Amino acid sequence: MMGRTMFIDPGRCIGCQACVSACRECDSHRGKSMIHLDYTDEGSSVASLPTVCMHCEDPVAPCAEVCPADAILVTADGVVQQADTTRCIGCANCVNACPFGVPKIDLQAKLQMKCNLCYDRTAYGLAPMCATVCPTGALFYGTVEELQAERPGVQVADTFVFGESEVRTGVAMVVPAERVQWPVPGGLPVVEINGKDVRR
Amino acid sequence: MTADPRAADGRTVLPLDPSLAPPGTRGFRDAGGIPADQWHADQNGETLVPTHCCFCGVQCGMYLRVDRGGKVFGVEPRNHDINRMRLCPKGINAYQQVNHPDRLTAPLMRRSRDEELREVSWDEALDFTVSEIRRIQQEHGRDAFGVLGGASLFSEKTYLVGKFARVALKTRHVDYNGRLCMVSAAGANKLAFNIDRAGNPFSDILLTDCLLLAGANVGECFPVLTQYVWGARDRGATLIVVDPRETAVARTADIHVALKSGTDSAFFNAVLHVVVEEGLTDEAYLADHVTGWEEVKANVAQYPPSRAAEICGIPAEQVVQVARAFARAPKAMAFHARGIEHHTQGVENCLSVINLCAATGHIGKPGAGYGTLTGQGNGQGGREHGQKADLLPGGRSILNEEHRRQICEIWGIEESELPAAGTSMMEMVWQMQRREIRGLIGICNNPFVSLPNYAVVKEGYDTTEFHAQFDFFLSETAANAHVVFPVTIWAEDEGVMANAEARVVKHNKAQEPPAGVRTDTWVMCELARRLGAGEKFAFDGSREVFDELRRASAGTIIDYSGITYERLEETGGIAWPCPSTDHPGTPRLFEDGRTYHADGKIHMQVVEWHPPADPYDDAHPMTLTTGRTVAHFLSGNQTRRLGALVEQTPRPWAEVHPSHGFRNGEPVRVVTRRGSEVFPALVTEAIRPDTVFIPYHWPVPTAANALTIDALDPRSKIPEYKVCACRIEHAGAIDEVPAPPVAPGHVAYPETQVSRTDPLPPTAPQGRGTSERS
Ligand code: SF4
Ligand code: SF4
To answer: How many C-beta atoms surround the C-beta of residue B418 within 10 A?
Structure first.
């Protein structure tokens, strides 16, 4: 972080899946969506949050590190690209390595696919499709200053703790201002919504 | 190509691989999302046509991507100031309708309902229609033939529907499906302000200190508006949501009043009671700007919070909290939608909200005012120019002699020839049942799914001797017709719509219609010509109709005379009234403190709460309420055919509280006095224990509207979709979701033309998607 990047704000997500539909429209993987939406507490709340590739920075891209075919390239600007189709052998190592559950395997084609931050758009200064359309701004693309100008007092986190290991990512999450937790445990930054503790 | 923004933080930037930019949109991207010359974005043949979404009343701006061959093949978000690039899933997928394999491409016809529909020539379909109109009108009088229009049509076309019915058919029976949408709000606004539109633009939401959303599921029905709602919240505004369900905006509200459906006016009366008790009224405003306050004040004295708590099934403190938050805020706004409008006291519910705004002086200021959120794209514009039973163009009353004379002059007919007021959409169906209306033309509506009490609707349509329907897909209603005219889809014609802010926006033509398809304008004019009224319908296209509409609205409150296509293209939309071409339009009403009544005052109205039409008893102790889901639009005729939206929400469900003992996905039978149907249960704490919710976008046997009651508000004639007495039971098997009908000779579209027996419930109460379900 923190040039222009993606910010995820679960407090704004309305679960509409505009991001999922928009992702299908991206020319680099037209017809397939690389986003998934989680419903965090089905049955008692309507809360939802989207997961895009977090573009891990440290350790740099576990998916790329474990790829035996060197198919996943990380560009100098920190974007973890989807697997190069001429190299990918469809072994699914990346799927197992990713702490956020992002890469997918097309079993028939034996090819990996994942969010590449709409490189065909961001390289030209446009926001990724999902963040462009997200009606609520739950997905926001820009700099942290731009985000804070639009949402006074907003706090973000880019470090997640999984047991013993810490992962610092290129994509950041908005965390409740009054309960900033840094780093964020378990990869789930939301601990409280409107005064209600939402941890299990 | 401007410098890569990533270079700013000092990283090495890879040289750009030009192949990363797909052909076509390169120019668009180089310019940061604005096409170089507005229309032609690129060097490779792809064009971006600026237009708006065809669906809801937000009217988001979008570009349609058109390939070298002139076909629409995609969408690009557009930085229009309504939506600022945002789109909801319906908007993103809308373009897929344009060249969908289910599109009707030839007229369909049958002489009796025993035959199958078959493709025929335009001449044959038009001749048969004209001969049936003549026969029915000769045998049974002119009023035996009716017309039902739609609020998804451009305003030019809705203007033509009204003129066609009254001038070509000379029948008084014309109405439209906006009757099912927001006529309660229209009625209340007319009574209180004598103007039928929202008071403030969406952008005022960002300026308010307290936002009250009543019966408005913004997250699913107007998703792009949430950016304004969240924007207000970011700036510290208090958010109040009044809704029996915990919707996505209710989830984050400061106060969520989960009241029982059908008790809204009791609640708002009680809120006003507390405002009065605590001395929070704006007395200076009331003294100068309002009539009827003393009566309203005396009436709300009968509604202490304890009484509201009992009627509405909520804690009494919430009434006090809402009253204080709304009245003490320096600026407050109230928005409502179908949740309080779909009632036998829909008009009264809206009036009770207006009373609250008026008594606290929250009217006519930046960040203070009221509005209604229109469900259909042209829900606002669709009723302004004479498609509604009692209205003439410019919102003139058909009962007013002066107004009648003015319009007859423009139309070139004698006043004696102009028919009287007709009846509303549901009443017309009852008349069809009674054989008072024997022939019908329906234009882009689907009452088989959208009207309440399906059995009555089916019987009404089955009883008609002749029924023609205009549509671009074979809807459930069209499948029942004698003649189906294949007409253009929104992207194949130009025209205007007025969104929920009363901002008129222009839609542009992105592709030529498929061979065999004509514009609705052409079909109406051709029918008029064959009926002998050709000289009054000599329109070449939308532009000419719009010019007549502008003249017909001049001097009225709904004045479009200063709005031109050119101005709309330059400005991105103009709110009416706009009386001259140098007038900027009127985004915010009442800024000078005057309403459109002759005395310039708000006419406050006494509202007495009364129970809903369908009484509760031991066999029907619970409330059935209906509504929309984010992936589908109205009767689903359009969205039930789009793969991504079908995948997102493949079938309806019954949302029930865990206290009833159902497991997720278990079959639950919902029984009302009209019938019963089985749905998978979606078990969630986000709904009141005494309430069941079913989304209404599907036909029988999974149609919410087979269960709803056809009781109407006496003033607005809107049906009471939001409250029916019901009970729920365990059931054996879940009803199949029928595939949308396909015209003869068309191939079923594999992704959507399958019936769904999948018994799994949706994954979650909001979004309700199936994506990524493993
Ligand atoms: S588009 Fe935005 S609000 Fe909708 S589901 Fe995706 S992240 Fe959530
Ligand atoms: S349906 Fe409404 S909110 Fe969604 S894109 Fe269309 S106009 Fe915008």
So the answer is: 18
Cα B645 to Cα A52, B23, B321, B438: the distances in Å are: 20, 27, 39, 37
- What is residue B480's predicted lDDT score, i.e. its pLDDT? 96
Burial string for B196-221 (b: 16+ CB within 10 Å, else e) reads bbbbbbbbbbbbbbbbbbbbbbbbbb
| Interface predicted TM-score (ipTM) of this complex, two decimals | 0.88
Map B424-475 to HEC letters.
Answer: CHHHHHHHHHCCCCCEEEEECCCHHHHCCCHHHHHHHHHHCCEEEEEECCCC
Partners of B675 in the β-ladder: B672
Among the partner-chain residues A77, A120, A126, the one whose CB lies closest to the CB of B14 is A77
How many of the other CB atoms lie within 10 Å of CB of B535?
Answer: 9
pLDDT at B503: 95
Count the helix, strand and coil residues of chain B and give each as a percent rounded to the nearest 5. 35, 15, 50
Give B768's contacts in chain A (Cβ within 8 Å). 15
Residues B392-401: tens digit of each pLDDT: 999 999 999 9
Whether B181 has a pLDDT exceeding 50, the answer reads yes
Q: What are phi and psi of B695, to 5 degrees?
A: -75, 145
Q: Could you tell me if B19 lies within 8 Å of chain A, comparing CB atoms? A: no
Q: For residue B555, which phi and psi values (nearest 5 degrees)?
A: 85, -5
Q: From residue B290, how far is each of A98, A170, B369, B596, B638 by CA, in Å?
A: 64, 57, 15, 12, 45
Q: Is A48 close to B766, i.e. CB distance below 8 A? A: yes
Using the beta-carbon criterion (under 8 Å), do A135 and B9 form an inter-chain contact? Answer: no
DSSP string, A76-144: TTS-BPPPPTTT-----HHHHH-TT---EEETTTTEEE---TTHHHHTTTPPPHHHHH-TTSSEEEE-H
Specify the pLDDT at position B59.
96
Name residue B256's beta-bridge partners.
B241
> Any chain A CB within 8 A of the CB of B75?
yes
In this predicted structure, what is the pLDDT of residue B581? Answer: 95
Question: How distant, in Å, are the alpha carbons of B248, B391, B633 from that of B375?
Answer: 18, 20, 9
DSSP character at residue B167: I
pLDDT value of residue A95: 93
A16 lines ligand 1 (CB under 6 A): yes
Do the beta carbons of residue B58 and residue B371 sit within 8 Å? no
- Residue whose token pair is 């365990």: B730
- The candidate with the shortest Cα–Cα distance to B343, out of B652, B708, B671, B728, is B708
Confidence of residue A47 (pLDDT cuts 50, 70, 90): confident
Cα-based distances in Å from B565 to B384, B504, B508, B548, B587: 18, 10, 10, 13, 18
* Mean pLDDT over the full length of chain B: 91
Mean pLDDT of B228-237: 92
Q: What is the mean pLDDT of residues A74-94?
A: 89
Over its C-alpha atoms, chain A yields an Rg (Å, rounded) of 16
A123 to B247: CB separation less than 8 angstroms, yes or no? no
User: Taking a C-beta distance cutoff of 8 angstroms, is the pair A2, A168 a contact?
Assistant: no
Report the 10 Å Cβ neighbour count for B124: 13
- Provide the pLDDT for residue A108: 84
Sign of CA dihedral B587, B590, B592, B598: positive
B626 vs B218, B411, B641, B720, CA distance in Å?
15, 41, 22, 10
Question: Which residue from A minimizes the CA distance to B58?
Answer: A135
Beta partners for B370?
B334
Q: What is the pTM of this model?
A: 0.92
How much distance in Å is there from the Cα of B666 to the middle of ligand 2? 33
